[in-house]
Design brief:
Layout: H1 2-13, E1 30-35, H2 42-53, E2 62-64, H3 66-76, H4 80-89, H5 94-103, H6 110-127, E3 130-133, H7 137-140, E4 147-153, H8 156-167, H9 171-193, E5 204-207, H10 213-226
Parallel strand pairs: 1-3, 1-4, 2-3, 4-5
Length: 240
């Protein structure tokens, strides 16, 4: 399954025209899940994909998150951790850029990095039947009509407890983790959005402290069905 997904990522990245749909086929459907730190997201997305597959009879839904970063790093000829750290840093000064240009044979510009990420994520969203977790998907796929944008939220004390249990941390460590990760995510969005700090509105904001996973998945599925994302059309054939 992993090899098949990576083959798909490679093929989508290198298509000459990501808008390969016929004139009678709309881009999407795509669901983008953003989340406050401590709300998870990937697990909800996987459960959601399984549920949505029951209502779509010709193409399975894919969940993408870290895979996007790994494939983008490969295309840029960068180490994934180096790309991740670069995106987390936020603004870099001119002096840092000059040092990087001299110290790295494969130095990449902000513009090329952002364009590679945006093009890849946009290709997934255009192709459809994709659940994108994080990665500024809710910004990049904003113009796709058959889309649904979800924000998972929860009170801070609930999220701190989740982080403590998942990572075996003390309360102060969990709070520091949340603050640090939130800053890193904002820096990532800044890279992708070109510095525009205004975040688009979401279709749904779901408080995880008041729903279990099954209820959340059913709620999102209902919203997707209401917006017409689960309508079945003539089968598209993907050849791996």
């Amino acid at each position: 399954m992993k090899n098949t997904l990576m083959f798909y990522l490679d093929k989508r990245l290198h298509q000459q025209d990501v808008r390969y749909h016929s004139a009678n086929t709309q881009p999407g459907p795509v669901i983008c899940i953003s989340r406050e730190v401590g709300c998870g997201g990937v697990n909800i997305a996987r459960l959601l994909a399984t549920e949505l597959d029951k209502h779509t009879n010709y193409q399975k839904w894919r969940v993408l998150s870290k895979e996007i970063l790994r494939e983008s790093a490969r295309e840029l000829d960068m180490e994934p951790n180096k790309l991740r750290n670069y995106l987390r840093e936020g603004e870099r000064g001119l002096f840092d850029d000059i040092l990087s240009a001299f110290s790295e044979k494969r130095y990449k510009s902000d513009r090329k990095i952002s364009k590679t990420l945006i093009d890849l994520i946009n290709s997934f969203a255009q192709d459809g039947h994709c659940i994108i977790v994080g990665r500024a998907g809710h910004i990049i796929a904003r113009d796709i009509e058959k889309s649904l944008f979800i924000k998972l939220v929860a009170p801070l004390d609930w999220r701190v407890k989740q982080i403590m249990e998942k990572n075996n941390l003390q309360i102060r460590e969990a709070i520091e983790f949340i603050e640090r990760t939130e800053k890193e995510r904002q820096n990532f969005i800044k890279h992708i959005s070109g510095g525009n700090s205004k975040e688009p509105e979401f279709d749904l904001s779901i408080n995880l402290s008041r729903m279990n996973s099954t209820e959340v998945v059913n709620f999102i599925r209902f919203a997707a069905q209401t917006k017409g994302l689960l309508e079945t059309n003539k089968s598209k054939v993907e050849v791996y």
